[in-house]
Amino acid sequence: MSWWFAPFYDGFMRKSEEACVREWRRALLADVGGDVLDLGAGTGANLPFLSRDARVVAAEPDPAMSKQLRLRARELNLSVDVVTTDAEALPFASESFDTVVSTLVLCTVRDPERALAEAKRVLRPGGRLVFLEHVAAEDPGRYRLQRWLEPVWTPLAGGCHVTRRTHESIERAGFTIESLQRESMRKAVPIVRPSIRGVARPRSS
Ligand SMILES: C[S@@+](CC[C@H](N)C(=O)[O-])C[C@H]1O[C@@H](n2cnc3c(N)ncnc32)[C@H](O)[C@@H]1O
Fold first, then answer.
1. Does residue 35 have its Cβ closer than 6 Å to ligand 1?
2. Residue 46 near residue 101, CB atoms below 8 Å
3. Candidates 16, 60, 105: which one to mutate for ligand 1, based on the most atoms within 8 Å of Cβ?
4. Judging by DSSP bridges, how do beta strands 123-134 and 97-103 pair with one another?
5. What is the mean pLDDT of residues 19-25?
6. CB under 8 Å to 65, separation ≥6 — which residues?
7. What is the model's pLDDT at position 203?
8. pLDDT (average), residues 133-149
9. Residue 60 Cβ contacting ligand 1 at under 6 Å
10. Distance (Å, whole) CA 151 – CA 92
11. Which runs of consecutive H residues, i.e. helices, occur in the chain?
12. How confident is the model at residue 10 (pLDDT cuts 50, 70, 90)?
């Protein structure tokens, strides 16, 4: 992450959160309880929407993000176990979570398929991956714009990539996608607007 990213992240996201993302989080996370792993949990934007009785582990490598997450958890009176780790090498036993949540993270991790393989490993049988990610545009004109701007955008935006075909990575990592919605993330910078959200389940191997 860039050193300046954490203090500005919530402000940077505010308009999109108000326009659509907050409602998407609410709908996706409405019935998410049990043992929950929030990958790249950032400042804790998902916390208000998880079941109050969920046992939440927040995996977050950036200490500045974790600090804000802890503050948010305290404000919400939630107990959250914050673990400093990359998603590509999770320090958790296999089959230890009911749900893995990944929101706006697979754009940033160095190796999305490795992170997803780890997500699959730590999910219990019948568990699910809940995702909300911005992705490569389907529209060729916007995709060209994303490709052109990505080399400038990625270092500025904490390692965020805008041309990833994340649904393909989810499937390649051994998940079956059960639901998938594509929608424009309104009020976001145009190259991060194309988004997908939904639920996937590990395929048995
Ligand atoms: C754009 S923020 C999204 C935060 C939050 N999930 C949300 O929905 O607002 C991306 C987060 O991924 C974290 N991150 C970056 N590289 C990571 C990695 N390899 N593994 C896990 N998290 C990572 C960043 O520190 C940051 O908090």
1. no
2. yes
3. 105
4. parallel
5. 98
6. 1, 6, 9, 41, 42, 43
7. 94
8. 98
9. yes
10. 34
11. 5-16, 22-29, 63-75, 112-122, 140-156, 166-172
12. confident
Tokens for 156, please give them. 């500025």
The average pLDDT across 130-153 equals 98
Instruction: For ligand 1, atom 8, name the residue with the nearest CA.
Output: 103
Does 205 score more than 70 pLDDT?
no
Overall pTM > 0.90: yes
Strand 35-39 relative to strand 194-202, pairing = unpaired
CATH class held by domain 5-202? alpha beta
Q: What is the pLDDT of residue 3?
A: 57
CA of 76 to the centre of ligand 1 (A): 21
pLDDT at res. 2? 54
146 lines ligand 1 (CB under 6 A): no
CB of 40 closer than 6 angstroms to any ligand 1 atom: yes
